[in-house]
Amino acid sequence: MSPPTTFDINRERMIEEQLVARGITDQRVLDAMRTVPRHLFVEDAMQAHAYGDFPLPIGSGQTISQPYIVALMTLALHLTGSERILEIGTGSGYHAAILSRLCQKVYTVERIDGLVSRARKVFDKLRYYNIVSRIDDGTVGWPSEAPFDGIVVTAGGPRIPEPLLDQLADPGRLVMPVGGQLVQDLQLVEKRDGTLTLTTLEQVRFVDLIGAHGWPN
Ligand code: SAH
Fold first, then answer.
1. Which among 199, 109, 97, 117 has a CA at the least distance from the CA of 146?
2. The one catalytic residue among 2, 65, 92, 100
3. Which CA distances in Å does 204 have to 1, 26, 55, 91, 175?
């Protein structure tokens, strides 16, 4: 085995100091975050900061979420390996990559095509072949592939888009930041026997979800 790189060391510190120290103990989620090379999902100039405890700019005014938030949202989906998951907001592709290590297939939608093509290159390089992507307004979901066992929206909107609730399987779990454009509540929706239960997990700050069922462009 080759000796650990600075990236490997920083990634291990990220796991211990940002995730385990904050109470994330789920072994599968920690292993996924240990496996995926986060530095490949940011621009070269940002790589040295890729494992910091903060979001980072990824171009086009968008950000890659803080590692802890990625872990928290992933954890909320309770993935066992067999699920089909819809992600709205591919961005850098990092969160999709994490999900892809923990479920059967990831369907990810992004409205900015430059981000999609960049993320695709990284997925191919890492041979993460169970991620499919699409350029579209994700607030309408991905009807032809529905229902999804889990849905994760990685941009903040004024309300949970109705099409996403319709495309959520029963049982199914959806996580999304809901609120104003400055701060949002990270909400978890559980669908079971036709009933929706809503829980707020954390206060968060995400970029805008822009679309038919989000903020206007
Ligand atoms: N999951 C990403 C986080 C990206 S930030 C990561 O791991 O890097 C949120 C992303 O949501 C941005 O790239 C933004 O362009 C995208 N977005 C905003 N509104 C959208 C919409 N209606 N449909 C699809 N993507 C959207």
1. 109
2. 65
3. 39, 21, 11, 17, 12
CA of 109, closest atom in ligand 1:
24
- Contact (Cβ atoms closer than 8 angstroms) between residue 135 and residue 108: no
The predicted structure's pLDDT at residue 49: 97
Which residues are within 8 A (CB) of 158 and not within 5 positions of it... i.e. 6 or more apart?
178, 179, 180, 214, 215
**Which residues, in sequence order, are CB contacts of 186 under 8 Å at separation 6+?**
69, 72, 73, 175, 176, 177, 200, 201, 202, 203, 204
Per-residue pLDDT averaged across 147-170, rounded? Answer: 98
Whole-number Å distance, alpha carbon 50 to ligand 1 midpoint, is 18
Residue 1 has pLDDT above 80, yes or no: no
CB 68 within 8 A of CB 22: yes
Residues with CB under 6 A from ligand 1: 62-65, 88-89, 91-92, 94-95, 109-112, 115, 137-139, 154-155, 207, 209-211, 214
- Specify the ligand 1 atom closest to the Cα of 97: 7
Neighbour tally for 134: CB within 10 Å: 13
133 catalytic residue (yes or no) = no
pTM of the model: 0.98
